[in-house]
Amino acid sequence: EAQVTQNPRYLITVTGKKLTVTCSQNMNHEYMSWYRQDPGLGLRQIYYSMNVEVTDKGDVPEGYKVSRKEKRNFPLILESPSPNQTSLYFCASSFGFNGELFFGEGSRLTVL
Amino acid sequence: GQSLEQPSEVTAVEGAIVQINCTYQTSGFYGLSWYQQHDGGAPTFLSYNALDGLEETGRFSSFLSRSDSYGYLLLQELQMKDSASYFCAPGLHSGAGSYQLTFGKGTKLSVIP
């Protein structure tokens, strides 16, 4: 089954404790992206990647890191999480330039 | 700068037709996508307009006018299951060979009996 898989789906952590949200897709997509969703703010792009070893900042990259060492994986790293990073995170992927993103189920992160 | 406007909420009656408008001001625009998101779920792709005009997919249609920086999503024969949030998402060229898909704040559609 074609899918984008994120883990963990739910996480409660404390300020400053490094964490990684993994994202994996099995569709051989070149493009991958991370979004965060907050009430009243819609979906905002954090980082995106056009292909392996190519990453770019989105609209809200502060406090996040990403890497793209393999085509299928695009982990989101929070080196020192803060409460303002409490949010619902979505990973997405697409093949090429056609406006169609496939989203993971989301990861709800709470930073205390 | 860049801006993206769509209504925050729309209410419509089951069986009716509803139109959700989207206006954008972006540089590097290449196409407009629409996504649906039910409460607690992930966004799912509905349609994409690369060219001006109407694209039809079953009960849903999407329209784009590049000259007016405007698009809309048209939902016909509304069903209760269409109650969800709808996002317009302009695609942007953001550098050499690079592109982004940005999202509006979404329109919450409530379908009432």
**Portion of residues within helices of chain B:** under 10%
**Main sheet characteristics of chain B:** 6 strands, mixed
- Helix-strand string of chain A: EEEEEEEEEEE
Work out the helix count of chain A: 0
Quaternary organisation of the protein chains = heterodimer
- State the secondary-structure class of chain B: mainly beta
Question: Helix/strand-derived class of chain A?
Answer: mainly beta
Strand content of the residues of chain B, in percent? over 45%
Shape of chain A: globular
Strand content of chain A: over 45%
Low-confidence segments of chain A, given as residue ranges, are none
Radius of gyration of chain B: 14 Å
Arithmetic mean of pLDDT of chain B: 94
In angstroms, what is the radius of gyration of chain A? 13 Å
Order of helix and strand elements from N to C terminus of chain B: EEEEEEEEEEE
Write the layout of secondary structure elements.
The complex is a heterodimer of chains A (112) and B (113).
Chain A: E1 4-7, E2 10-13, E3 19-25, E4 31-38, E5 42-51, E6 54-57, E7 65-66, E8 76-78, E9 87-94, E10 102-103, E11 107-111
Parallel strand pairs in A: 2-11
Antiparallel strand pairs in A: 1-3, 3-8, 4-5, 4-9, 5-6, 7-8, 9-10, 9-11
Chain B: E1 3-5, E2 9-13, E3 18-25, E4 29-37, E5 44-49, E6 53-57, E7 60-65, E8 70-75, E9 84-95, E10 98-101, E11 107-112
Parallel strand pairs in B: 2-11
Antiparallel strand pairs in B: 1-3, 3-8, 4-5, 4-9, 6-7, 7-8, 9-10, 9-11
Briefly say what this structure is.
With 112 residues, chain A is mainly β. Chain A is 0% helix and 51% strand.
Characterise this structure:
The complex is a heterodimer of chains A (112) and B (113). Helices cover 0% and strands 51% of the residues of chain A. With 112 residues, chain A is an all-beta fold. Chain B is built from no helices and eleven strands. At the A-B interface, β4, β5, β9 and β10 of A face β4, β5, β9 and β10 of B.
